[in-house]
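Hey, sorry to bother you again with one of my protein questions. A protein chain has come my way and I'm curious about its shape. I'm sending you its amino acid sequence along with the C-alpha cells. I owe you a coffee for this, so here goes:
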Amino acid sequence: MDMKKVLASAVALVATAPASFAITVIPGGTPQVPEISALEGTAALAVVAAVVLLAWERRRKSA
C-alpha cells in the first residue's frame, strides 16, 4: 500500500473521530447532538475545498 494513502487514511480517521463521540444519550430521553455554528460549518467547507484543490493541483502538475 502506498504510504500517501496510509497517511491520508490516518488523517481522515483522526479528523472524524471526535464526531463519533459527539452524540450523547440521556437515559429515557432523546439523543443530544451538539449544534454547529455557521462559522464552524463554513470553516469545515473551506478545509475540504482546500484539500480538494491541493490534490487537484498536484495531479495536474504531475501529469
